[in-house]
Amino acid sequence: MYTKEQTIQLQNATLSFLKEGEQPATAEQLEALRKVLRFHEYRYYVLDDPLLADGEYDQLFKFLEAVETAHPAWITKDSPSQRVGKSLNGNFVTVPHLVPMLSLDNSYNSEDLKDFDRKVIQLSKTSKVTYCVEPKFDGGSISLIYEDDLLVRGATRGNGVAGDDITTNVKQIRSVPLSAAFSSYGIQQIEIRGEVLINKNNFKKYNADLAEKGLAPLANPRNAASGTLRIKDPAEVRRRHLETFVYSIGYYTLLPGHELPEALKTHEASLRLLWELGFRSPVKELKTFDHIDPVIDYCLAFEESRDNLPYEIDGMVIKVNNIALQDVLGMTSHHPRWAIAFKFKARQATSKLLEVKFQVGRTGSITPVAKIEPVFIGGVTVSSISLFNEEVIREKDLKIGDSVLVERAGDVIPYIVKSLEDLRTGQEKEIEFPKTCPVCGSKLFKEAEEAVWRCINIECPAQVMERMIHFVSKDALDIRGFGEANVRKFYELGWLTDIPGIYKLDYEKLGTLEGFGKRSVENLQQAIEKSKEQPLHRIIFGLGIRFVGETTAKVLANKVHHLLDLAQFTQEALQDLEDIGPKVAGSIVHFFSTPANIEMIKELETLGVQLTNTHKQLTADGNLTGHTFLFTGTLPTLKRSDAEAMAEAQGGKILSGVSSKLNYLVVGEDAGSKLDKAKKLNTVKIISEAEFLKMIQ
Question: Which leading EC class covers this enzyme (predicted)?
Answer without folding.
Answer: ligase
